[in-house]
């Protein structure tokens, strides 16, 4: 679960840029994409949707 939270943090902090987020976390783009997919699958919320992203970050304690 910690990997998913880190993926969310990185994705948001780097402007929702998949390539930059993956590079910052030291993972391949497809790994980053999969982690964001797992977040959607587990929560029903999409990190790409601004409203859903706000809810995800609030729940994960990632307030800006």
What is this structure's SSE topology?
Blueprint: H1 2-13, H2 18-25, H3 29-43, H4 50-59
Helix pairs in contact: 1-2, 1-3, 2-3
Question: How does this structure look, described?
Answer:
- It is a single chain.
- The protein has 64 residues and is an all-alpha fold.
- The longest helix has 15 residues, at 29-43.
- The mean pLDDT is 87.
- Helix 2 (18-25) packs across helix 3.
- The protein has helices at 2-13, 18-25, 29-43, 50-59.
- The protein starts with a helix and ends in a 5-residue tail after the last helix.
- The protein has four helices and no strands.
- Helices cover 70% and strands 0% of the residues.
Give a brief rundown of this model.
This protein has 64 residues and is mainly α. It is built from four helices and no strands.
């Amino acid at each position: 679960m910690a990997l998913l939270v880190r993926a969310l943090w990185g994705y948001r902090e780097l402007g929702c840029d998949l390539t930059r987020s993956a590079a910052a976390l030291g993972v391949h783009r497809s790994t980053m994409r999969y982690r964001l997919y797992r977040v959607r699958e587990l929560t029903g919320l999409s990190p790409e949707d601004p409203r859903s992203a706000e809810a995800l970050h609030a729940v994960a304690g990632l307030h800006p």
